[in-house]
Amino acid sequence: MSIYRPKTTVEQWRILQAVVDFGGYAHAAEQLNKSQSSLNHAVAKLQQVLGVQLLEVRGRKAYLTDIGEVMLRRSRQLTQTVTELEQLADNLHFGWEPEVRLAVEMVCNRSPLLPIFADFNRESRGSRLIIDDTVLTGTLEQIVEQSADVVITHHLPKGVLGEPFAEFRMELVCHPQHELAKLPQPIKQSDLLNHLQVVIRDTASKPSETSGWLKAEQRWTVSHFDEALRLIKSGLGFCWLPTYMSEESVTRGELTRLTIDGSSHRSGLLYLVLPKGEKTGPCAKLLADKLLESRSSNLSPEVLAGSLS
């Protein structure tokens, strides 16, 4: 098997890009701190080995040919990849992680996290972010086994510390035409026994799907709240849903809230945990710091004051 040997160099493509970006050989030479003749030679050599004309000079300015337009566009992908590769090597040399794994409990509203992710992306030095949706003991498993770098959870395992990060609220909902919606509210838990409950699958390797189960005789298990929402809106059963998912549908009359005698909703705190403790890498710490900087918009003033005291 023969090995392909490139005819061109990355430096030649960078010089071509500079000539185009800075409007000619003279300005490009100033920016690159090279002689104009060396740039002319590099581009001429590039065109010679490729056998195509990339630039044509009119007056004192160089213009891209049609072929040059295509080649220049592809060359930018090449030089960007090389830059990222070299940056990655530098990052790894100084202990910067190539990837960070964030485990997020599904009851957490993701919308407020998007600007944080965008900010993190600008400073992550090319590290990849892997986001895992977790449920119930699946979240605890990520903490105990230290399989994630950063975890947002509603429950802290014994002996594990976490920073209050956000509040969550869940409500019991069904379709407005469902039999449960026609009963006088609040209903009794026994009223639920003969109706279908939709629950979210525990993501642990050895799941324990007991939290949130209301002892209904019929139970369907789905992997995500999005699927549960579709089923409930179609008229199938009832389900505990985070208010950030159910609120709009309730307002539009597509869902109705159910209240059980002694329980109108469920709420609590979400905590940010670094499972690896002092072994947490710098990139994961960067993400955690940015998440914590945003928590003033996720927590009530009372809870925030308590977490900072």
Automatic annotation (TrEMBL):
Similarity section: Belongs to the LysR transcriptional regulatory family.
Cross-referenced PANTHER family: HTH-TYPE TRANSCRIPTIONAL REGULATOR, TRANSCRIPTIONAL REGULATOR-RELATED
Keywords linked to the UniProt accession: DNA-binding, Transcription, Transcription regulation
Identification of the protein by name: LysR family transcriptional regulator
Keyword DNA-binding attached: yes
Record's keyword annotation contains Transcription: yes
Pfam family, one: HTH_1
GO molecular function, one term: transcription cis-regulatory region binding
Residues of the HTH lysR-type domain: 8-65
Organism lineage string: Bacteria, Pseudomonadati, Pseudomonadota, Gammaproteobacteria, Alteromonadales
Family annotation (InterPro entries): LysR_HTH_N, LysR_subst-bd, WH-like_DNA-bd_sf, WH_DNA-bd_sf
